[in-house]
């Protein structure tokens, strides 16, 4: 069991330094290679991961569950539908209890404040598996995917086209830490909320023109117009976001070898056209697979620190 003095959580992208990311990305490469070679590697033998879901998931659940298993450990799936969390047990109490029985915890929930309250009361590392504000594991996979296809992301230009959601806010943090330019294009009324954060970020530009965002970009990325928890806004959002669809015309403005990414799940014909997501520039399946590899490196790093093998 990890001692309270040394626990590190991963609640937002900013929780790691550029140097930590260099290490985790290199570990990801090594662990992915071991996986492709069918090499048994069980550094987390007998360790248990609790996965708490307050929202739906396919990729996050599967990649964490398969990942801990491949590292020699075991996963326990918990949802608010069938635990006492769904009946109002205080998050602080749940954190105290769960963290006495397992070695690491992943949570997908609503507000970031819930995750923070859980982490403060946890004896073991806590990982953000998506909140309303952030989705750091996904952007970690996206950065690794960019590295695999095009090399380091430092100095490159990324275009975010769509909602100012958890993915957009995580990309903003990533730009600052990893040193790439980020152009965020959102419709009027759906802009980045904390305008103050943009003032401090010379690498982030905001525009209401998706064409301007994509011009010369090395990576174009988007996400659903309506995130989980905001379903009641769906119809209004469909109208407001109609011009924020990544189609072949927008992609043509980016670099000729620009990549397209989407965290998935997607709505073809809304935030992205079918020819783009299924086209030659799209790396969405690698991006999804890489959730598995980056999270194995992340769990290994949080539980065992830096290794040399
Ligand atoms: N991208 C992502 O987090 O997918 P899931 O919602 O399926 O976990
Ligand atoms: N922004 C989306 C991401 C889903 C993986 C949501 O929060 O629903």
Write a compact overview of the structure shown.
The protein is α/β, with parallel strands linked by helices. It is 41% helix and 14% strand.
Overview of this protein structure:
The protein is α/β, with parallel strands linked by helices. Helices cover 41% and strands 14% of the residues. The protein contains 12 helices and 9 strands. The protein has helices at residues 18-36, 59-70, 91-101, 112-120, 136-150, 166-178, 195-199, 210-214, 234-240, 248-253, 274-277, 284-304; strands at 48-53, 74-79, 104-108, 126-128, 157-161, 181-185, 204-207, 219-222, 259-262. It has a 5-stranded parallel beta sheet with strand order 7-6-5-8-9. It has a 4-stranded parallel beta sheet with strand order 2-1-3-4, sandwiched between helices. Strand 1 (48-53), helix 2 and strand 2 (74-79) form a beta-alpha-beta unit. Helix 2 (59-70) crosses helix 12. The longest helix is centred in the C-terminal third of the chain and has 21 residues, at 284-304. The radius of gyration is 19 Å and the shape is globular. It starts with 17 loop residues before the first helix and ends in a 5-residue tail after the last helix. The mean pLDDT is 95. The site of phosphoric acid mono(formamide)ester has 8 residues, from helix 2.
